Amino acid sequence: MSELLYEVNWMLICALIALSILVSFIGDVVGMKLGKKRITLLGLRPKYTSRIISVLTGLGIAVVVMVGLSLASEQVRTALFSMQFVQRQLLTMRDQLRTNQDTMYKMEVDLLQSRGDLSDRERELDSVSTKLKEEMDNLQRARSDLANMRAERAKTEAEQEKLTSENQKLTAESKKLEASVNKLRKESETLKQGIQKLRTGRIAAFSEEILAQSIAEYSPVTERQMNDHIARMRTWARDMLAYRFGKKPSELPLPQISSASLTEAKNKVINTNGRWLLRLSALGNLVDGDSSIQVRLDARESKLVYKSGDVLFSHKFAPNTKQQDVEQVIYMALKSMNGNAASDGVLRDPITGDVGSLDSNELMDAIEHISKSSKETTIEIFAAKDVYTEGPLAVNIRLR
Predict the structure, then answer these.
(1) Which residues pair with 257 in a beta bridge?
(2) Element at 213 (helix H, strand E)
(3) DSSP label at 384?
(4) C-alpha to C-alpha distance for 387 and 378, rounded to whole angstroms
(5) Which partner for 261 in 20, 22, 25, 296 could form a disulfide, CB atoms 3.0-4.6 Å apart?
(6) What is the pLDDT of residues 246-255, one digit of tens each?
(7) Dist. CA 45–CA 67, nearest whole Å
(8) Over 80: is that where the pLDDT of 134 sits?
C-alpha cells in the first residue's frame, strides 16, 4: 500500500485542485462584473452576452490551465497529446510480453528437458570419470611395468654387452692359445728334428745362436753397403761352422737368410743414418750333414750404453770381512749388473743370457785381497771400454 501511495503524482493532483479553485474563483468574479455592467455583444441581450463571455472566459481559462499543466508536467503532455501513441505502444508491449511469456514458457520447458538431459549427462560423465580413473590407474600400472621392463632390458643389454666383451676376450685368448699351440707344435717339430739330428749327427750350433754379426755405420747406409755386410756375415758364419765341423769352408753351403727377416732388416737400415747392429742367428740346431743352413737376419740400432771407465758398482768392505761374505756381495753385484745392463739396452747372449764377462783370475784375486785386508776396502767395478747395444759388457775391478 505504501508503494502505491508513493507512486501517485501528488504534485499534479495538488496543481489540478489549485487551478480548479482558481478557475472557479476567476469565473465567478468575471461573471459578476459582466452582469453588473450589462454589456451587450452583437445586439444580444446582456444575459446571453454574459453567458457567452463566461463561456469564453472559462474556455480561455481552461486553455491556459491545459497549457500551464502541459508546460509544468510531462505526464500531462503525454496524457493530452500522446495517449493514443502510448496506448498503441502499450498494446504492442502487451503482445510482446505475451510472446515473451510464451517464449519463456517454452524456454522453461526446454530448461526442464535440458536439466533432465544434464542429469543424464552428469550420470554419464560420472560413469566416464570412473572409467577414466580406472584407465588412468591401468595406464599408471602399465607405465610402471614398462619402466621395469626397460630397466630389465637395459640390465639384460648390459649383461649381454659384458658377455659379448668376455666372449671377444675369450675368442682373442683362444686365438692366442691357438697361435701358441701352433707355435709349440712347430717348436715340437723342430725339437723332434733336432733330437733326430742329435741321434744321427754332431751339433755345430744351437737354435737362436749368433753365427755372425757386423756393425754398419754410414751416413746414410746404402743398399750396396748393406749387401756387402750381409755377404761378409754369411761367409763368417760358414767359416765358423766349417771350423766346428772340422771341414773346409768350401765343403759347406752359404747360410740361407729367410726372406721376411732380410726384407725387414733392409727396410730398417737402408737410407738411414746411425750405427746399426746386424746379426745372423741360427733358425734351428745345425747338425753335421745338413744340406742347407737356415738363418735369420736381425737389424737393431746400436747405441752407446756405457762409456769406458763408467763405475757400474761400488761397495765398501769392513776390515777382515769373511771371504764368504765378500764372494756373496760381489756375486750379487755381478748378477744385478747383468740385469741392469740388459735394462739399459745391452743385448743378452741368446744362449747363456749373459751380457758380458769378467776375468775370473782378477775376480778371485780381488776377493782374496779384500778378505785379508785389515783396512776398509772399496771395490769398484767399471766398464773396461765403451759398451754399445751389441755388447759384450767387459768390466775391470779396482780396489782402493
Answers:
(1) 295
(2) strand 210-218
(3) S
(4) 24
(5) 296
(6) 778 887 888 8
(7) 32
(8) yes
3-class SS of residue 389 = coil
Question: From the CB of residue 257, how many other CB atoms can be counted at a distance below 10 Å?
Answer: 21
**Comparing C-alpha atoms, which of 71, 82, 56 is closest to residue 19?**
71
Per the document, the length of the chain is 400
**304 DSSP β-pair partners:** 388
Q: How distant, in Å, are the alpha carbons of 82, 96, 105 from that of 90? A: 12, 10, 22
Q: How far apart are CA 363 and CA 330, in angstroms?
A: 9
Residue listed under C-alpha cell 500500500: 1
Query: What single letter denotes the amino acid at residue 123?
Result: R
Q: Name the residue with higher pLDDT: 348 or 197.
A: 348
Pairwise CA distance, residues 304 & 386, whole Å: 7
Each residue's pLDDT tens digit, 262-280: 888 888 888 888 788 888 8
Q: Write the DSSP assignment of 215-232 as a string of letters.
A: EEEESS--HHHHHHHHHH
Instruction: Report d(CA 66, CA 23) in Å as an integer.
Output: 12
Cell numbers describing residue 118: 544434464
Question: Which run of H or E residues covers position 204?
Answer: strand 203-205
Q: Which helix (H) or strand (E) holds 356?
A: strand 356-357
Q: In this prediction, what percent of the chain has a pLDDT beyond 70?
A: 74
The pairs formed by 247-252 with CB atoms below 8 angstroms and a separation of 24 or more are 252/293
Joined grid coordinates for residue 390: 751389441
Q: Letter for the amino acid at 328?
A: Q
Could you give the 3-state DSSP secondary structure of residue 396?
strand
DSSP secondary structure string for all residues of 281-312: EESS-EETT-S--EEEEEEEE--EEE-TT-EE
List pLDDT tens digits, range 322-366: 888 888 888 888 888 888 887 887 777 776 767 676 667 777 888
- Which grid cell sits at 168? 671377444
Q: What cell numbers appear for 359 in the block?
A: 776375468
Cα–Cα distance for residue pair 258/208, rounded to 1 Å:
14
The pLDDT score that the predictor gives to residue 247 is: 79
Answer whether 244's CB lies under 8 Å from 279's CB: no
* Among the ranges given (65-79, 87-101, 258-272), the one the predictor scored with the smallest mean pLDDT: 65-79
Helix axes 223-245, 259-269, angle to 10 degrees: 140
Task: Find where cell 497549457 sits.
Answer: 67
pLDDT value, residue 199? 46
Residue 322: how many other CB atoms lie within 10 Å: 10
Q: Which amino acid is at 192?
A: K
